[in-house]
Specification:
By secondary structure, this protein is mostly helical. Helix content is 79%, strand content 0%. Helix 3 runs antiparallel to helix 4.
């Protein structure tokens, strides 16, 4: 029973994450605008994904418990470039890419560095989600933000809570996923609220 549940959670998470950001990327390309998307939120999310992936690799955790993160990072980079492009300053993406690339190597130079980064990762991810919420509250407009993407993110966090409990039991990782699940649900509900408001206004 436990093995079957683990198999389902791992592979369904991978399947969802393979297309997780595609609705958001499609919405931005269709609107030819990044309106509603918080750049600080996206940068913080990318940083959180990077740290989380390095942490899992460093401690040799099972590949299936984090295999979706390279896919998520790639999709976030594409989305980030789209945001910079439609904001008219794509060249400004270069310094951020340089920082992320150098961080990939710096994180595992010492054990204390990766441990500290992972402990801060949850706070970074919370800051990312809160930045998106603040942006939505400020503009009262969901713009090109995809509720589907955030809803799918909620699902993947829920499945990762299950896989973490079954496999590693790592309290730091578990805390991160539970916290992210709550914020993802909150953001999805906020997006839906403003989408309904926009429809009524029309």
């Amino acid at each position: 029973m436990e093995t079957g549940l683990l198999w389902f959670c791992n592979w369904s998470t991978l399947g969802v994450c393979a297309a997780l950001k595609l609705p958001q990327i499609s919405a931005v390309l269709a609107a030819r605008s990044a309106r509603g998307i918080s750049l600080p939120s996206l940068l913080l999310e990318l940083a959180g994904f990077l740290v989380f992936l390095r942490y899992q690799q460093y401690y040799g955790y099972p590949l299936l418990t984090y295999v979706e993160f390279p896919i998520l990072i790639a999709q976030d980079i594409i989305l980030l470039l789209c945001v910079f492009h439609f904001n008219g300053n794509v060249k400004q993406a270069a310094p951020y890419m340089a920082v992320f690339l150098s961080s990939w190597f710096i994180l595992t130079l010492q054990k204390w560095i990766i441990d500290l980064a992972m402990n801060l990762c949850t706070f970074t991810s919370v800051a990312s989600k809160f930045a998106q919420l603040q942006y939505l509250w400020k503009t009262r407009d969901s713009g090109a933000v995809s509720a589907l993407t955030w809803g799918l993110s909620s699902y993947t966090c829920a499945t990762r809570v299950v896989t973490t409990l079954i496999t590693t039991g790592d309290a730091t990782i578990l805390t991160r996923f539970v916290t992210m699940l709550a914020f993802n649900i909150w953001i999805t509900a906020t997006i839906r609220k403003y989408q309904k408001t926009a429809v009524k206004a029309e």
